[in-house]
Amino acid sequence: MAHSLKIFCCFFFFFLFSTLSIIPLSHQLEQHPLDSLTPNEFIRVQAIVNQSHPSTINDITFQYIGLNEPDKQALISWLQNHRPTPITAPPPRQAFVIARINHQTHELVVDLSYDNIVSDHIHHGFGYPLFTFQEQNRASQLVFNHAPFLAALNKRGLKVEEVICETFALGWFGETKQNGRVVKVMCYYLDGTVNLYMRPIEAITVTVDLEAMKITHFRDRLVVPVPKAAGTDYIESEQKAPFGPELKGITVVQPDGPSFIIDGSRVRWANWDFHLTLDARVGPIVSLASIYDTEKQEFRRVMYRGFVSELFVPYMDLTEEWYYRTFFDAGEYGYGLCAVPLEPLRDCPANAVYMGAFVAAQNGMPIEMPNVFCIFERNAGDVMWRHTETMIPPDLITEVRPDMSLVVRMVSTVGNYDYINDWEFKQIGSIKVTVGLTGLLEVRGSKYTHKDQIDEEVYGTLLAENTLGAYHDHFISYHLDLDVDGESNSFVKSKLETVKVTDQTSPRKSYWKVVSETAKTESDAKIKLGPDSA
């Protein structure tokens, strides 16, 4: 049976504006079925959900609102019959909503064509929806009116006005009973630096029930020295000499303007054509990526849909205040919600063009997110292909094709880490996905000032006095629905196998051959990274 190849890829880490005109969505002839919700659609969705639960309107919080992805086959059929003139109607435009209503999680589908709710399902299983920024901020502020917490700060000689707090998900470790929507609150100390993550206030546990929005547990286990502020500030103007050699500037100039065209959410460059949107949970979504075949005079499908499925960040620390730090940066905090405005000439080169997006606030109203994407052509001086032929004397034939690519970039700052997410489209027909991991370390305060003092498991490396760098991982999983020349795709694993020459057919003692295996299930397609040749 024909099927689309869906791959869940996992990456593991140890540790002047362009004048290109962008055609606004409102100026397009029509809305694309995969376009993100517009501000007006967010407002309509909020009104429809509120009207459906009039008696609980004050108890409704919108944890997520996004496009309810249309049926794939319906969309492909519409696309095939759409050009040059539309023959069939586009798939129904719907929104998917996750809302907390009367302390229950509702999963709703809202039909925007008829302004009604077509599905309202109450989730009774494990897990909870995304946190909103509003509820995280409220929870982290509760401690400043909690007398035991203020007493704990006073005991440590800390000034309350220099304290910053944030919330942490509890994690799940096989418990059969759910803990409810509960978070832990951890605090940091500024007083001489903006690098709050280098100055944790350790051994204080504050538990907050998000539904009741109150502190349910407090414990001050012991006093641990707060690491020093000296040398931790990263603000450029605060850096002290000596500095390294100053580099001369490099300017990217395209005198004829960029080679790409942005039409609403559609991007066209060289032989590539794709659709780009932002989702609050997963961040950038690249859809309908196709490449133009100049010989066949048609676009050939490459990828139906691609996005970050999850970012899992487990810390390897078993202490009471750290064991639960096993973060799902997309599922708990929102990879797209945490997208930040990109800094021109810093995050992106001078030839970049910027795109904004909208997400929903806790009350369901739209929030504008400017400059969350930058799109630019990259010429890093690399070579796409070359050859020098010396075997046809007296001629010396040299042909070189410089490498040019198109980059779509988003930066998501989830707490202390900044993820630089690039989708790079190459002229050779490949798509390269990279995630640059930068930002700040989340350290744990410690009584130790020198590594020779350590006589126990501390789950990290002593970086400075009273400062432990906690061991942790970053697992980044991708959802890739590949439609290479259509849906009849298979995933083939090829391994190199050594063959011994046991007869006298060759002086060689061995050679290798390729052994291929077609995966029948997703489990078959698993690849164990290691030294094996593949």
Automatic annotation (TrEMBL):
Q: Where is the signal peptide?
A: 1-21
* Cofactor needs: Cu cation
* GO aspect biological process, one term: amine metabolic process
Q: Example GO molecular function term?
A: quinone binding
Q: Does the keyword Metal-binding apply?
A: yes
Q: Which UniProt keywords apply?
A: Copper, Disulfide bond, Metal-binding, Oxidoreductase, Signal, TPQ
Instruction: Indicate the residues that form the catalytic site.
Output: D329, Y417
Tell me the ranges covered by the Copper amine oxidase N3-terminal domain, including all copies. Answer: 129-226
List of residues that carry 2',4',5'-topaquinone? Y417
Q: Which Gene3D superfamilies match?
A: 3.10.450.40, Copper amine oxidase, catalytic domain (2.70.98.20)
Q: Which top-level group of life is the source organism from?
A: Eukaryota
Q: What is this protein called?
A: Amine oxidase
Give the organism the record lists. Answer: Gossypium tomentosum (Hawaiian cotton)
High-level lineage: Eukaryota, Viridiplantae, Streptophyta, Embryophyta, Tracheophyta
